[in-house]
Specification:
With 445 residues, the chain is α+β, with helices and mostly antiparallel strands. The chain folds into three domains: 85 residues, Rossmann fold; 70 residues, ATP-grasp fold, A domain (Dna Ligase, domain 1, 2-Layer Sandwich); 237 residues, D-amino Acid Aminotransferase, Chain A, domain 1 (2-Layer Sandwich). The protein is 34% helix and 27% strand. An eight-stranded antiparallel sheet has the order 13-12-9-10-11-14-19-17, with helices on both faces. The chain is globular and about 60 Å long. 49% of the residues are buried. Bound molecules: ligand MV4. Ligand MV4 binds next to strand 6, strand 8, strand 12 and strand 13.
């Protein structure tokens, strides 16, 4: 069993991981940049190491500094959290080379799944429905045109190394193909250092639904159902719910088991998320994430399963602590991402929190590193808190969410709390009628 974990992250997720470690009686090492010296994740850890200046490249992405910190403090394992080094296959490899456990899947699996074409091919081979498109990379405008004509417009040209919506271009007619192709290639080359692209049928108004899976080293794999992450803006999720109101229990059960079986066949070990687009009552695989996700708490709320503890147990070589039959779904949960951003313009807002009051009461969980007087530095992601609320059904969950949003006080910086108040009062949201374009249509770009 792992005895000491170095947490290579900051903010609320570092604290979430610390809490799992405390529950498992594992010692913790925090790392931090110079501007994070007074951060809550540092205060709560058993030990801490300063790994460099504010710029992420020099601290939270500084591989030698992080691995050195783990060696110096005698940590057995490194938890990468999300973002930063969490899906960096080279980092996972280096961690292992230094005799440490990387809390995540094997480096070669991170690399394979990070290649979107490879991931799609793999999932299709093991029997999951994928969005129709090119079998591999598309290497010329002419080939892209021929494929598109065969598939029918509109089509989407995507970067192989992409994800998160960068390096993606729609072509609605043959005239659009040359520009869409060239732009996707150029953007992909710059953003991912890999300019290969592929083609997919473009789904106009899908929902974004993702399944959570857990797999141990003994071939046991289970699913914890899905999350509906359709309410997003510019590829940044804003509000997530579990379960999705469009899936029936019978469909979830059958589809989830199919995914878990497929993942087990792949020999995947760790936690993971399979992303799908949902249109015309069907799910189509688009990509997989090999990390713990921001929105994992809503799944914890409706299943009672501690995903971070399971992730650590898996990395320690333990068996999953529950079987598929023991997974029981109960009620509804919603997560609001509270970003330090202007709720109308989404411009990031750095500063000092002058007054902080956190909501509570039945069904309310807040994952955050905030405290009275804490600083929000401008160098990192603007996510400062996650308000997670559950209820026996979606209606009760929404009522509790509105109550919690009214209680929440975060003075000194702009936050998305007022935006979430509007979303939670929106009649379409209340009825569950939305797709991935809804927020941008209602609240603008
Ligand atoms: C798509 C799509 C429509 N059709 N693929 C965006 C990010 C990346 N994860 C995949 N994305 C999309 N792929 C096909 N064939 C629409 C999107 C998309 C999207 C997907 C999920 C969540 C938000 C999104 C916002 C815009 C576009």
């Amino acid at each position: 069993m792992i005895k000491k974990i170095l947490i290579a992250n900051r903010g609320e997720i570092a604290i979430r991981i610390l809490r799992a470690c405390k529950d498992l009686n594992i010692s913790t090492v925090a790392v931090h940049s110079t501007v994070d010296a007074d951060a809550m994740h540092v205060r709560l850890a058993d030990e801490s190491v300063c790994i460099g200046p504010a710029q992420p490249r020099e601290s939270y992405l500084n591989v030698p500094a992080i691995i050195s910190a783990a060696c110096v403090t005698g940590a057995d394992a490194i938890h990468p959290g999300f973002g930063f080094l969490s899906e960096n296959a080279m980092f996972a490899h280096m961690v292992k080379e230094h005799g440490l456990i990387f809390i995540g899947p094997k480096a070669d699996q991170i690399a394979m799944i990070g290649d979107k074409i490879m991931a799609k091919k793999t999932m299709a081979r093991i029997g999951l429905p994928v969005v129709s498109g090119s079998d591999g990379t598309v290497t010329s405008i002419e080939k892209a045109l021929r494929m598109a004509e065969k598939m029918g417009f509109p089509v989407l040209i995507k970067a192989t190394g992409g994800g998160g919506g960068r390096g993606m271009n729609v072509a609605r007619s043959p005239q659009d193909v040359p520009l869409a192709y060239e732009t996707a290639r150029r953007e992909a080359g710059i953003a991912f250092g890999n300019d290969s692209v592929y083609l997919e049928k473009y789904l106009e108004n899908p929902r974004h639904i993702e399944f959570q899976i857990l797999a141990d080293q003994f071939g046991n794999a289970i699913h914890l159902g899905e999350r509906d992450c359709s309410l997003q803006r510019r590829n940044q999720k804003v509000w997530e719910e579990a379960p999705s109101i469009v899936l029936t229990p019978a469909f979830r059960d059958e589809f989830g088991r199919k995914i878990a079986t497929a993942i087990s066949q792949l020999g995947y070990v760790g936690v993971g998320t399979l992303e799908f687009l949902y249109e015309n009552d069907q799910l189509f695989f688009i990509e997989m994430n090999t990390r713990l996700q921001v929105e994992h708490p809503i799944t914890e709320m409706i299943t009672g399963c501690d995903i971070v503890c399971e992730q650590i147990l898996i990395a320690s070589g333990e068996k999953l602590s529950l079987t598929q039959e023991e997974v029981k779904f109960s009620g509804h949960a919603i997560e609001c991402r509270i970003n330090a951003e202007n709720p109308a313009t989404f411009i990031p807002s750095a500063g000092t929190v002058s007054n902080y009051h956190c909501p509570g009461g039945p069904g309310v969980r807040v994952d955050s590193a905030l405290y009275d007087g804490c600083k929000i530095p401008p160098y990192y992601d603007s996510l400062i808190a996650k308000l997670i609320v559950c209820g026996r059904d979606r209606q009760q969950c929404l009522a509790r969410l509105r109550r919690a949003l009214r209680e929440y006080v975060i003075d000194g910086v702009d936050t998305l709390v007022p935006l979430h108040q509007k979303i939670s009062d929106n009649p379409n949201v209340v009825e569950g009628k939305f797709d991935i374009h809804f927020l941008e249509k209602i609240f603008g770009n």
